[in-house]
Structure prediction request, 376 residues.
Amino acid sequence: MSVVRRQARRRWLAVACGVALLCGLPAIIAAWPVPDSSLSAAALRSRILSSGSVPYSGYAESSVSLGLPNVPDLGDVTTLLDGNTDQYAWYLSADQWRSEVITTGGESDTYQTSYGTFLWDYSRSLLTTVLGSQPFRLPRAADLLPTELARRLLSYASPADHISRLPSQRIAGVDAAGLRVVPASPMTTIGAIEVWADPANGLPIEVSVTGRGGSQQVLAARFFDLNESRPSVADLSPNPAPGVAQTTTELPDIRVFLNGFGPQLPDQLAGVRQAASTSGLADIATYGSGFSRFAVVPLPHETGDHAVDGALGVGTPRLNFPGTISTEIQTPLINAVLVQPLGGRGPVYMLVGTVAASELVKSASALLTDVRSQQP
Prediction:
């Protein structure tokens, strides 16, 4: 064999080894031991709650399995809370971020900027400028990002809840420290919350929630790609191409619409006290504390009537409250009760939260008694 042929074989062997190494590198990195963090559970929770100023960009997937009935006019919310959501996110601060949801038609983006909110619909080639504030709104895709979920859920934890550390995991290239929260209250539907976050800055990377008495994840969200650096201005700012249709919509002032809409809500329902309101909406009240909390929302008569009819039409059980048409919606994590007093054009009350359905039924009964006591 000539010297030239031997050298050629060596070169090809080196190339083959290099290719094999590159192909196996992800598996090698994944199998590499993950160093555990020395942070205590309390310190890790505190770091996660303070991570709202950490910039990042990345790709995340979330999955929610509530088994919600398909109530008319709530199709988008039902899909969001009972399906899979894939989205890219760019985050600089609470006032500057972007969420890009991957859809069958392309993408749907929400831009939150210092000068307003913008919605981009790729399938319609339409950019919408949203005017007005949102003291009360329906869930949106960005709420399902691991960062938002973790901070919101962990903010509800109380000293009575059991908080412990979990072994670290390598997630999206980060050696993430684990945290587990088990609510102490027997009233809540939440069984356990598990969060993995970057121990250096507390940025949440993965979240999972199981229902009480269950072992399957009801809600899960995880980054599969993550870059912990400041996103560019171009990624955070809508920049429509020439010819793209643009429109403006103004959010209704819900405070004007709801304040004074129904009778004043009581300070407590079935022994559960009302929490302090931060939304400025007098007629939307939250009761309970920690993970055992629920909201009472008075719906306009026609809207509430439609919601009750829609829920009953898809087979939700009817409740035996005299003088009402009422129903309950049960899921492994979120329960709701709709109460429509007969006669008049008063509001339909919706009680919804992460508490047992039986507790909502008791509170709805107490609410009816209080409302009727205020009637002339």
Summary: Residues 10 and 280 are 75 Å apart (CA to CA). The chain has two domains: 41-250, 254-374. The radius of gyration is 25 Å.
